[in-house]
Amino acid sequence: MTRKTLVDKIWDLHVVEPGAADLIYIDLHLLHEVSSPQAFAGLREAGRPVRRPALAVATSDHDVPTDGRELPSDAGAAKQLQVLTDNCRDNDIELHPMGSPGQGIVHVIGPQMGLTRPGTTIVCGDSHTATHGAFGAIAFGIGTSEIEHVLATQTLRARRPESMAVTVTGELPPGATAKDLALGILAAGGTDAGTGTLIEFRGPAVRALSMEGRMTLCNMAVEMGARSGLVAPDETTFAYLKGRPRAPRGELWDQAVAEWRTLCSDPDAVFGRELVFDAGSLVPRVTWGTNPGQSVPVDGVVPDPADRADPGERAAAERALAYMGLRPGTPMREVGIDVVFIGSCTNSRIEDLRAAADVLRGRRVADGVRGLVVPGSMLVRHLAEQEGLDRVFTAAGFEWRMPGCSMCVGINGDTVAPGQRCASTSNRNFEGRQGAGARTHLVSPATAAATAVAGRFATPADL
Ligand SMILES: CC(C)[C@H](C(=O)O)[C@@H](O)C(=O)O
Ligand code: SF4
Fold this sequence. Notes:
This protein has 15 helices and 19 strands. By secondary structure, it is an alpha/beta fold. The structure holds 3-isopropylmalic acid and iron/sulfur cluster.
């Protein structure tokens, strides 16, 4: 009887050469235009080919305009997209460029194609690679020199991460979503609770989440300082993957599922760290500060920094409130907003758009509010249009955009103006993230939609 965590089991299966940092085999390497150019340049200079081009898949997501233009107005962004195209062509790597049916945010297209699979190792030059962990994969972000190493060898030198268990007990109450759960766990544990670990999310409330909800949760594991997060695969995982274009078929499918069923932590596995969170009393949340751990219930108030005993925390809270332009004690429901962004690899999948559209059907955004819906991929956009969601959004006064990272990080030009307040379904509310001086409040898609209608923070139940 072993006492291994799921992370250790998957890791062990991938060790090519043990060491202080192991050399591990990488099953899937995802690429985008922002973090890959130098890695390809390094290979070229060294005269080395890409070792396993068939195990790499690239997409254009961060730089792409989402307003229908064919090229970014920024010359640097246009160049980056062209360089990715050239690198993929020269190295025989599958690319989903702007405008193509498979294009989308890298963390949205991997799962939707059935490329993201249980028990695999997945890397990408992007911190939110953790999203893929929802399928029971070890998936984490890497730096440029590591991208080059993976391209050249299909392996990576990496320290085995410590396993952390985040056990979510109880049941999510109606109205509370996976995003609220992620924000709740972050508020409870803080943004360093998982530093250096790989978090296994488990417990009944996690099992009850859809695959898309699990992706939202794992996406935000990195905001707890973790290298990544994962969820052991189960029937929900298999049902999601079955029939996807790149998923195994026929006999291979049956074999794969039989193998995937063995992927779980042993009952008495030892975790380096543990956090237990009760989902039973969770309500929709909204961030008030400048890190994702600083959130309160939507029916709460802006906290008072003076209540913090720790001087460092107090100073950080004061600084956050100054940046956010908020006064302690203000009910969040009285805080007016200028922009609502529904998108990003956290919340731009079809269930997210359905949740937002359900709230917006037959309603209008408040006067003066700008609303943007940016689907995570061309496929999500297409599915949404088939269901008529695009018409719900446009009738409500939202802009219906082309897929990409967009206002999550603002490098494609979709930004929030200085001093403006944005209710955003993304994962980071750092200073300047959505534009210089922009004030970001992280919320779920349902809360974002209700907030757009009310013009101030609101939940669907408030409308
Ligand atoms: C541009 C990219 C490397 C970056 C990341 O690593 O996460 C971005 O996706 C982000 O979310 O800030
Ligand atoms: S959507 Fe945002 S968080 Fe996700 S990869 Fe793009 S920029 Fe990063």
